[in-house]
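HUMAN: I'm a chemist; might I ask for a sequence paired with its structure tokens?

ASSISTANT:
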Amino acid sequence: MKIELLATSIADLAYDRIRADIVFGRLKPASRLRLDRLAKDYGASVSTVREILSRLSSEGLVIAEDQRGFRVAPVSPAGLRDVAAMRLLLETYALPLSFAAGDLEWESRVVAAHHKLAVMERRMLAGETAGTELWKRYDREFHQSLIEACGSQTLLDLYGGVFDQYLRYQMVALVFRGEIAAAEHRLLLECALSRNAERACDVLTRHVNGCVDDTLSSGVLR
């Protein structure tokens, strides 16, 4: 039993690390994934790594190629538009549900998540670049907190996977929209506390579309 639990924990840890390295761009889009190298780097067996990559393939983060192994899923302008559209579809559906059901504890988590994000945004505005990954982690946490009271774990799980694909594009392009994005986040917080779901959906749509436009205009995605 202990051996099985240890094997499971090693596999779970390796999965989390490989997935995070893909989402945050440490494993580059379209790059080849060598099983022996990954097994060494992440402390797992080759068979475990193969299973992990197959799982990530089902999540759209890895491409399985017949007889040629695996590679990180590529990025493209069309891919970004698709992921952004799916994110908006899920998030604008979940926001009204969450705002209607959210209690004081939910409000507290939203406020706390926004505080961390706002601190990182102020640092970014001041010219700091060392905390880029932490900034995006807090961005994810804030948006997740806004919808976490929606009442559907299935919806939250689906949203989390879509957001991570969206986040991967942001990490590739490293587009920071500065005060515009920070102001939109403040508006989303205000909407949550006042339970103004309609306005929140409008702000969110502008927020996501603005990020997509800036990313595409940067020319990073070909």
About this structure: The chain has two domains: 2-72, 77-217.
